[in-house]
Amino acid sequence: MSGHRLTTHARMPVQSWRALELGGLDLLHGSFTTHAFARHTHDTYSIGLLGHGAMTFDCQGATHTLRPGLIGLIHPDEVHTGHAETTDGWTYRNFYPDVPLLQGAFTDFDDASDALPRLPVVIDDPALFQSLVTAHRAFEEHASSLTRESLMRAALTHLVRRHAFQPPALRTALHEPGALRLVRSQLEDEFARNVTLDELAATTGLNPFTLLRAFRRTYGLPPHAYQLQVRLRHAKRFLRGGETVVDAALLAGFADQSHLGRHFRRTFGVTPQQYRRGVKNVLSS
């Protein structure tokens, strides 16, 4: 759909769902044409990512228009509306992070502040837009909980650090070698389990946002990417041991064969089946 004018064929049915990660996160993705949102509020933030068309909404005493690539942000309890700017309507992704989640990106774990991050209503930041879309898309696909949480928390950190009216003075990522080694060991020992970032943070006593920064600084990858590399190594081991691609995927912690195949080829340049076939040829020669 990217790069094409919004047409009848390009419109998507509206999908709304709730993810269990991050304390429960409501998400939406779809197209609207004639629908007009009445004046309403949310008890959470509302973050919209405009993909196609144009949407106009009233908020904070002014009228705003979202076009492709722009981010619309509504604060908790702010009255706002929403409708199509043209007859083409609009397609967007939306999600509703609660206040504690944004506060977690705004303050350190041991900071007792209840500051509410204040942000612009419309944000033009291509890198942030792509980060938020990537995080949102992870909740539509067979991504692990760790991937979903990590991508969303990283994108929200980007949001508040670059665009909050009073940017947080976050401490430098803490160097906690013992805690980080514990996280790395858990990812390696329980590679097939769908561990969450909140679980890893609770194990170490670190703020999930702090854990993300510290782990990446120490090991060069965020926890979800490190987990992926561990799973890929085990998938290769299972394939060398004669497992089918389907079984190797499940044993290594991937959602299914296509999930493994996508990451395997991106990382190693061949498909799992090609790798398996090559191993068999070597063993039989």
Automatic annotation (TrEMBL):
InterPro entries tied to this protein: AraC-bd, AraC_XylS_family_regulators, Homeodomain-like_sf, HTH-like, HTH_AraC, HTH_AraC-typ_CS
Domain HTH araC/xylS-type: start-end pairs: 181-278
This protein's record includes keyword Ribonucleoprotein: no
Keywords: Activator, DNA-binding, Transcription, Transcription regulation
SMART domains according to UniProt: HTH_ARAC
High-level lineage: Bacteria, Thermotogati, Deinococcota, Deinococci, Deinococcales
PANTHER family referenced in this protein's UniProt entry, alphabetically: HTH-TYPE TRANSCRIPTIONAL ACTIVATOR RHAS-RELATED (PTHR46796), TRANSCRIPTIONAL REGULATORY PROTEIN (PTHR46796:SF2)
Domain of life, per lineage: Bacteria
Family matches, as PROSITE patterns: HTH_ARAC_FAMILY_1 (PS00041), HTH_ARAC_FAMILY_2 (PS01124)
GO molecular function list: DNA-binding transcription factor activity; sequence-specific DNA binding
Protein name listed in UniProt: AraC-like DNA-binding protein
Keyword Transcription regulation appears in the UniProt entry: yes
